[in-house]
């Protein structure tokens, strides 16, 4: 074997080594960026994401499943279809939601987008969400930690929906970063707590 062939062989081995290192580095960067987006996101939306909840304080446990079942485009915007179904019940509820560039969640209803969850607001700030008669006043509170069967979640945000002139109109939606909705507490009705999720 000539010295020229040895040099070429070493160069090829060196090039293969560099390509392997680059490929591994790129894969690691992609994984890290996916995790970074997920851990800062209070309302992760991706088709096939599933959250399972159960009620507490009733004779029979009622299980609720929320799943992102589809992604559609309307007027140049991406919307996600979230289905809600109860165990042993054929009724299924649907929400059509989109997330804007500021991570605010909008609900599509009869041709109009309504701001449902505004994650840009600071603790103590409020905004309004339309209802059939009176608007809900939505207040945001920070909760240090929330514990459910699915785990212990820190830095949670509580969205408190209330129609001031009605008694028992209150609903609390508690979100954990990287997970989404972990508690939904209703003033008059069923309250649900996260038991598991699958991303």
Written account of the structure:
With 199 residues, the protein is α+β, with helices and mostly antiparallel strands. It folds into 2 domains: 1-40; 50-198, no CATH class. Helices cover 19% and strands 48% of the residues. The chain is built from 1 helix and 12 strands; from the N terminus they run αββββββββββββ. The chain is globular. The model is unreliable at 17-38 (pLDDT under 50).
Query: What letter string, H or E per element, gives the SSE order?
Result: HEEEEEEEEEEEE
**Strand count, sense and closure of the main sheet?**
12 strands, antiparallel
How many domains? The number is 2
Number of strands: 12
Oligomeric organization of the protein chains: single chain
Rounded mean pLDDT is 82
Tell me the Rg in angstroms.
Answer: 23 Å
Total of DSSP H or I helical runs spanning 4+ residues: 1
Write the layout of secondary structure elements.
Elements: H1 3-40, E1 50-55, E2 63-74, E3 77-86, E4 92-99, E5 105-109, E6 112-117, E7 126-129, E8 136-148, E9 151-162, E10 171-176, E11 180-186, E12 192-198
Antiparallel strand pairs: 1-2, 1-12, 2-3, 3-4, 4-5, 5-6, 7-8, 8-9, 9-10, 10-11, 11-12
Key structural traits:
199 residues; alpha+beta; globular
Question: What's the short version?
Answer:
The chain is α+β, with helices and mostly antiparallel strands and about 200 residues long.
